[in-house]
């Protein structure tokens, strides 16, 4: 069962899975960087009224699972996260990153995001397809 959030005009349950990769898929994310990225993500996502649920990854990418209210523009959130985290990571881990990047790079320009949910798409599709069968018709 979904837990619904509410704001002034809506009830919602919006969960997203974001994947961001390092520039040129360089394997440069250390455990310390990963820990710092999680701190940065929690701060930025909370500023956007989002909640980071889980974050993990490998040396060349991270996965973030988060929930967001409907008014959040995902592209702005993601751009903000990538810009701010890149700035902090490049500044705080300059020595480690200098062997991978000589320009101010950290994240690739691209990302992958998809919505998540507990109900399979086929179940939702069938539910919507059957809506006209449940319409109220006056008794004859």
Automatic annotation (TrEMBL):
<feature type="domain" description="Transposase IS200-like">
    <location>
        <begin position="11"/>
        <end position="131"/>
    </location>
</feature>
<dbReference type="Pfam" id="PF01797">
    <property type="entry name" value="Y1_Tnp"/>
</dbReference>
<dbReference type="GO" id="GO:0003677">
    <property type="term" value="F:DNA binding"/>
</dbReference>
<dbReference type="GO" id="GO:0004803">
    <property type="term" value="F:transposase activity"/>
</dbReference>
<dbReference type="InterPro" id="IPR036515">
    <property type="entry name" value="Transposase_17_sf"/>
</dbReference>
<dbReference type="InterPro" id="IPR002686">
    <property type="entry name" value="Transposase_17"/>
</dbReference>
<protein>
    <recommendedName>
        <fullName>Transposase IS200-like domain-containing protein</fullName>
    </recommendedName>
</protein>
<dbReference type="GO" id="GO:0006313">
    <property type="term" value="P:DNA transposition"/>
</dbReference>
């Amino acid at each position: 069962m979904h837990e619904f959030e509410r704001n002034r005009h809506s009830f919602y349950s919006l969960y997203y899975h974001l994947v961001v990769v390092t520039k040129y898929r360089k394997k440069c994310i250390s455990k310390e960087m990963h820990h710092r990225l999680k701190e940065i993500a929690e701060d930025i996502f909370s500023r956007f009224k989002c909640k980071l649920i889980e974050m993990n990854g490998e040396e060349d990418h991270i996965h973030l699972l988060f929930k967001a209210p409907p008014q959040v523009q995902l592209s702005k959130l993601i751009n903000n996260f990538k810009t701010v985290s890149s700035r902090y990571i490049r500044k705080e881990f300059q020595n480690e990153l200098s062997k991978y990047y000589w320009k101010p790079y950290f994240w690739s320009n691209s990302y992958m995001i998809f919505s998540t949910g507990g109900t399979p798409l086929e179940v939702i599709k069938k539910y919507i397809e059957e809506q006209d069968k449940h319409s109220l018709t006056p008794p004859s």
